[in-house]
């Protein structure tokens, strides 16, 4: 690939044009293309109309070096991708008996007879490359049209994924596509403008270089994409110097995974007592396989009674300070820890809204406490969000507070 | 609108072409268009290149009666939607001083001075309609080009939503767009093929009529879209006759909302004791505003100790039958109910995986029990899913089991 190649993506299918479906196939293709330095310049979704398909294919190929088409390869009359390709690019089709045999065997293996209509899927383009589909019935194609490349894949997500890995990525690599290196640094507890501010010296040192900042729910991601692994590693070190332990993880790591790994590695344990998050913190912790090694559970303490009965919060404390208070958050954290003899306890209490707020304690007020045997750490936050977001951000803040609390203890003492 | 009008949608912005962002704006536009009988025939995403934008606009308008463009209306050099429209459709632009004044006032209200660059947003198309934006700085446009309609909206979701409600829907209605009527019936506890099977008499009675079946996480949706409210109501009655109380709700109602409404209306209360779902059930219940009226909380009982300490499960029962068993699920439900004196208790215990399974109790095995003062109802399910899906489907099954349990009790006794 002498210059930076351009790609266009077409997703085919009237069902993709309704008010409920988004095209996620193009994201997988885009990630593969980006890894080899190919830029996606346009993507489109069109319905099952032969004329529209032909027009779209011609128009899209005019804008790009690589055209990728997904969907419309099924056996029914609605599936017109083959016909459209043939018409748009003047290609002739032949019946491939080996595909008919494969399809018949596939049906026979399930005790069925192949419907006659499936024969449509056995037509291939003369002189072009057919991509056998080991995950389904529709083969894909790699066509060369006027020196440009057209890749045609089934729209079924797991079939497409398999074809990307099996055919598309190896081709991108072979074609001289420079494999680029990606690293994602994940940051919690900072605003986007705070991150921008702290990035200034990095921007100054690397003018014109792309560093993508992506807002993720309850955190931010820094996306590095460079030509060599060494470059990525050196940039990563600079970013870690700037952000320190604000970086909680890398690539696909979630905050609950990072906290879980810390606990597992240190042989320590955790209990939780949640009020306004209603169990969300426990649910996130237990999304991680193997969490039963360090998480014992705890209480969803949605009333004063459950706070007292499950986490042992003194009723007088609740009466004196209210259920939403520093004192009760700390008592929840310490109480649940003591009750279940864990290394750490986390307590959360707050007002998720939309009602229940007051001038002194507005909606969004959340108290989070983390305790071990010798220390309790408290934080109060007032989120400017609606109910489910208050819950989510509170669970995120609690996990991050726990992470920093654990790191602050230094090496494991157990 | 004499014939069925066609619409095309273009989303503008290079950031929309990366591997992490999907275009959800087009879904809101599509829903509005569908309600007035306008079909979306294509949608596309293009980057911030003037030439690409111009080509895309010309091509798209050729395919439709209504072209909708979102994004690229910001104040920076990257925002080229205005220039592209002007070039594509031969329109002239003028500075609108009233917009400059509005922008300056908007900035002044925050104590800021308007950056000079924002003046770009005050250029409007001569002889065309400018859409004042009360949610942001970028105005939108309604242009008439060769008898066709071009609508231009900002890409910021809440600004777009406001403009759809304020300008676009009223126009669709005025233009003679027939307001269509929509109703969504939500079904739990059935497979898609089970739903298809039961729909046969309905299909036979309404040949050629569209009824969309949509798979939602842990449920299915039947989407009715008809020309009159009467038609929708009569189809709805037929579907309710077929599906009975398998229909748990309508339109935007979630299962946790429906269960919550049942409890609130009956003045009844609920406690939960969750093992494998780790708090997810409690979190979903507390996603509903006002859930503190009927939900007291309960336990995340991830170990044998927490099952005994929080929900009062007899340790001998655990020893005898194992933590994942009918007996323990029932004891969790009854125990947590008794402890917190609620009308109902729900207990869940299972193996979310990926490890921890055995031949007798494979990964995905989940026991769910619902109890009131006189009765305990148990269900065992073996989900063929991965960890987080096992959790989700278990919480969904527990909510639905609770719903049917409550309905089975008849009128409230409290």
Summarize the structure.
By secondary structure, chain A is α/β, with parallel strands linked by helices.
Walkthrough of the structure:
Chain A is an alpha/beta fold. Chain A has 3 domains: 169 residues, MoaB/Mog-like domain (Molybdenum Cofactor Biosythetic Enzyme, Chain A), CATH 3.40.980.10; 70 residues, 2-Layer Sandwich (Alpha-Beta Plaits); 151 residues, CinA-like (Maf protein, Alpha-Beta Complex), CATH 3.90.950.20. Helices cover 39% and strands 24% of the residues of chain A. Chain A has 14 helices and 17 strands. In chain A, the strands form 4 sheets. In chain A, strands 2-1-3-8-7-6 form a 6-stranded mixed β-sheet, with helices on both faces. A 5-stranded mixed β-sheet of chain A has the order 14-13-15-16-17, sandwiched between helices. The first copy, chain A, has a 4-stranded antiparallel β-sheet with strand order 10-11-9-12, sandwiched between helices. In chain A, helix 1 links the parallel strand 1 and strand 2. In chain A, helix 1 runs parallel beside helix 5 and helix 2 packs across helix 3. The longest helix of chain A has 22 residues. The mean pLDDT of chain A is 93.
CATH class of the largest domain in chain A: Alpha Beta
DSSP, total strands of chain A: 17
Mean pLDDT score of chain A, rounded? Answer: 93
Main β-sheet description of chain A: 6 strands, mixed
Strand portion of chain A, in percent? Answer: 15-25%
Q: Within the largest sheet of chain A, what's the order of strands?
A: 2-1-3-8-7-6
Q: Could you tell me which chain pair has the largest interface and how many residues each side has?
A: A-B, 69 and 69 residues
Per the principal axes of the C-alpha atoms, what is the gross shape of chain A? elongated
Secondary-structure arrangement, i.e. CATH architecture of the largest domain in chain A: 3-Layer(aba) Sandwich
Q: Number of DSSP helices of chain A? A: 14
Q: Name the poorly predicted regions of chain A.
A: none
| Helical/strand content category of chain A | alpha/beta
CATH H-level name of the largest domain in chain A... which superfamily? MoaB/Mog-like domain
